[in-house]
Amino acid sequence: MQIISQSSEWASVPLLPHQHRGFVPTMGALHEGHLALIRKAQAQNDQVVCSIYVNPAQFNNPEDLARYPRVLAQDLERLAEFPNLLVFTPRDEEMYPAPPRLRFDFGKLEQVMEGQYRPGHFNGVALVVAKLFHLVQPHRAYFGRKDLQQTLIVKQLIDDLSFPIELVVCPTIREADGLALSSRNRRLSLAQRQQAVLIPQTLFEVRRRIRAGGYPLPDLYQFVEEQFAQSALRLEYFQIVHRQTLEPVAHLEAPAALALCVAAYAGEIRLIDNVVLTLQKEL
Ligand code: PAF
């Protein structure tokens, strides 16, 4: 494992002309989901870079930024299983030598769900991802589907700025009881951890009902609201959307590629999750 903490060091990292570099951007507090991205990247590339950087520009809530887990020593221990990995740990002064003025506009994509409840979040994500892409110059970039909206924003960024990068979206990794892995899970108390399982359970049940057919959309929304109302979790949003555009689904009609998306609070801790499903026309 080689640690690179200054951008200027990239100039001395060799990559032969026919070789490929894979990139896994993270904010640290690494879990099995990140490790799965790195494994996939290592299987598909000659060289893999994992960045660890808590990006202040994507936090609309300063308390959330202050509380975000920072455990670099532990992260580096976890990464020791990847002997050839390059770990990029830039500092704020280098990433943001001056307050950034650039603003992105992702249109409808950033006005719904996470964009609606975390104003400025995707501008900050796009900014740091673009900076990291410029510095690391990967051929492929790996993101988890748990952050579905982020993957669509990054795809738009890659297309609009003509980055010669293939976006690889990998499945969400879950605990045995279904809870999606997230760096924020480590902040959950034992009781909150137990309550949080309602999130995947509800998503799986709604997906089952949609697949079974016969449940009108309003009933599905009402079911979700009732589930959360009876729990200690606070539902921020639940949406049944088209997977590519994130536009709310008006009718459950095949063919359609859908996503069921949730954000909910366990105490102060905000968790998001989604499941995807495809409705196919019967032949
Ligand atoms: O998904 C994350 O961890 C972050 O949003 C990312 C992509 C590393 C940008 O800071």
Description:
This protein has 283 residues and is of the alpha/beta class. It folds into 2 domains: 2-170, HUPs (Rossmann fold, 3-Layer(aba) Sandwich); 183-279, Pantoate-beta-alanine ligase, C-terminal domain (Pantoate--beta-alanine Ligase, Chain: A,domain 2), CATH 3.30.1300.10. 35% of the residues lie in helices and 21% in strands. The protein contains 10 helices and 9 strands. The strands form 2 sheets. A 6-stranded parallel β-sheet has the order 1-4-3-2-5-6, with helices on both faces. Strands 7-8-9 form a 3-stranded antiparallel β-sheet. Helix 1 links the parallel strand 2 and strand 3 (47-52). The protein is globular. The mean pLDDT is 96. Bound molecules: pantoate. Pantoate binds at residues 25-27, 55, 58, 125, 128-129, 147, 150.
List the keywords.
single chain, 283 residues, alpha/beta, Rossmann fold, Pantoate--beta-alanine Ligase, Chain: A,domain 2, 2 domains, six-stranded parallel β-sheet, three-stranded antiparallel β-sheet, 9 strands, 35% helix, globular, binds pantoate
Would you kindly provide a brief summary of this structure?
With 283 residues, the chain is of the alpha/beta class. The chain has helices at residues 32-44, 62-67, 72-79, 92-95, 113-117, 121-136, 148-160, 190-196, 198-212, 217-229; strands at 2-4, 21-26, 47-52, 86-88, 140-144, 166-170, 234-242, 256-266, 269-279.
What small molecules does the structure contain?
A: pantoate
In total, the number of strands is 9
Per CATH, which architecture of the largest domain?
3-Layer(aba) Sandwich
Provide mean pLDDT, rounded.
Answer: 96
Order of helical and strand elements: EEHEHHEHHHEHEHHHEEE
Give the helix proportion (percent range): 25-40%
Using the alpha-carbon principal axes, give the shape.
globular
Strand % is: 15-25%
Q: Structural class per helix/strand content?
A: alpha/beta
Largest sheet features: 6 strands, parallel
Low-confidence stretches: none
Query: Considering the protein shown, what is the CATH homologous superfamily of the largest domain?
Result: HUPs
Assigned CATH class of the largest domain = Alpha Beta
Under CATH, the topology of the largest domain can be stated as: Rossmann fold
The quaternary organization reads as: single chain
Give the helix tally: 10
Query: What is the terminal separation in angstroms?
Result: 52 Å
